[in-house]
Amino acid sequence: MYAVLLGCAASPPCAGAAPPAYGANDAGGFRNILPPGENGTDNFVQLGKFQSVGQRPPHWMDQLPLYSDLVYADPGLTGRQIPYYFKDATFGVKPNQIASIEHPRSGVTIVRDKAFGIPHIYGVTHGDVMFGAGYAGAEDRLFLMDILRHTGRAQLSSFIGGASSNRQMDRDQWQAAPYTEADLQQQIDDAPKYYGDAGRRIIADGNEYVAGINQYIHDATNPLDPVGAANKLPGEYVALGIVPKPWKLTDVIATASLIGGIFGKGGGEEVRSARIFQAFLARFGGRRGRRSWLDFRERDDPESPVSANGRFPYETASPFSPRGLALPDRGSVRFTSAGSPLTGALRAGAFGLDMRRALESKHGHSNALLVSARHSADHHTIGVMGPQVGYYVPQILMEEDLHGPGVDAEGAAFPGVNQYVQLGHGRDYAWTATSANSDDVDTFAEVLCRDAFHYRWRGHCMAMQRLDQHNSWTPNALDQGRCTAGRSPSCGRARPTSTKRTPGSRSRS
User: Fold this and answer.
1) CB-based contacts of 321: which residues, under 8 Å, 6+ apart?
2) What pLDDT is attached to residue 15?
3) I need a labelling partner for 34 at 20 to 30 A (CA). Which of 96, 119, 420, 475 fits?
4) Across residues 405-431, what is the average pLDDT?
5) Can you tell me the distance from the alpha carbon of 255 to that of 453, in angstroms, rounded to the nearest whole number?
6) If DSSP states are collapsed to H, E and C, what string results for 413-440?
7) CA-CA distances (angstroms) from residue 8 to 27, 374, 380, 384, 480?
8) Where are the domains of the chain?
9) What is the pLDDT of residue 247?
10) Does the 270-304+323-337+440-508 domain belong in CATH 2.30.120.10?
11) Fold of 2-179+205-258+351-431
12) Percent of the chain residues past pLDDT 70, beyond the cut
């Protein structure tokens, strides 16, 4: 994401279904790039053409050349060359660049530009904007959105098949966020209680957003318009012999739990760290082993290169706090999974493995370079921002331009939660995100009693809540798997991680 902030915003436009003029309310200077392309939907005919002759739908990979060619522009890249590698992200569309206009319901207008097919969404009301974001999101990423909502529930294998990697993805998600349908609904019900009016607005926005998704699903499966439906329905549904089911607000929560569980957490590896610590002690002795381990672990490395002088103290408590510290006996730890053994026929593609590798890729990292107006050559603020989420076809991020009462934003968002722009710019400012992998997950040692789902707490034998997720898939109905986790109210999730009677439980702050 590249953004140059150049001035103050103009006065707000009149609310209306008709799009305002190109650049209205935009200070100017914003550019971005989101490879490979905005379009992430291919109908069955387009899917067949790609498989037979390699022909891709429009706007499928048209941003990739700009992105990849930037590598060869340095050194020697100048400001004049920026438009060759980053596209214009100004609000709106120039009149001679309008490719299509659609109105999925009264009050909602979606305009797409000729150059890259970005959806520019306008609403008479705030709810209209949210509805349009849902419709455009489904238009560009419906099948991927379905993948994400099923993965967020640890149901990927039930949706697209029981390949071992899909089942492993279910296991990983159930360990990270074992939310039942009641848990997902509870998060919605609690929003007004914890956030007041803001919580109620979020729910209202979410309901309008879901209505937009469902309108697209209706249009893509409408038997009264078979030609229009065939053009809109992603070909993957036809190939798998399934029909997209309507969305619920809990689907948005499930998708958010998946995205947040990957990019919004860190830590939780105290057991593995303890094993490494014990290995250092065994090899180098007490004092030298402890010093070696402190130098080895990821915490606050004074020798690491930095981009700003000064110190920013964070999580300074000693890891050797005597109270509450428990180390496993050396050689006693046995890690287990949240799922049943990987057996049965594996007839589906390994989508889960590909998605996990892309999401967890360590080859590139989110980055941001900020220059204040005081230090820039033209005395305007500069931000070069690169949030990294891995490489996909289609990309797991999509771009949108949202405008209506209380909304003026353009940028990227995750499908399935794209009612708001999550990485982009407003009228005269821009924002991004980086994942710091801060240690917000802790591991606790539990003392079991009775069985694997009871633990001792303050002299009492307490029952954990057992959480089971059952999956099955076709063509063989006997192929099935189960993910199991235990939840202890005193700490958090629990799953067996060691031999004998002391499992580890994880609690995320």
Assistant:
1) none
2) 45
3) 96
4) 96
5) 28
6) ECCCCCCCCCEEECCCCEECCCCCCCCC
7) 6, 17, 12, 20, 58
8) 2-179+205-258+351-431, 270-304+323-337+440-508
9) 98
10) yes
11) Penicillin Amidohydrolase; domain 1 (1.10.439)
12) 83
Q: What is the DSSP string of 233-263?
A: SBHHHHHHT--PPPP-HHHHHHHHHHHHHHH
3-class DSSP state for residue 185?
Answer: helix
DSSP string, 304-325: S--SS-S----S-S-TT-STT-
Whether the predicted pLDDT of 506 surpasses 70: no
194 SS3 class: helix
Residue 8 pLDDT: 33
Residue 388 vs residues 1, 198, 362, 394, 412: alpha-carbon distances, Å? 10, 29, 10, 15, 12
Q: Do 214 and 131 contact (CB within 8 A), yes or no?
A: no
- Exposure letters 154-176 (e unless 16+ CB within 10 A, then b): bbbbbbbbbbbbbbbbbbbbbbb
- For residue 170, what are its two tokens? 């279910």
Tokens of 37: 């392309």
Model confidence, pTM: 0.86
Dihedral of the CA atoms 12, 14, 20, 22 (nearest 10)?
Answer: -20
Mean pLDDT score, 61-85:
91
Pull the structure tokens for residue 65.
């050349």
Burial of 28 (0-12, 13-18, 19+ CB in 10 A): middle
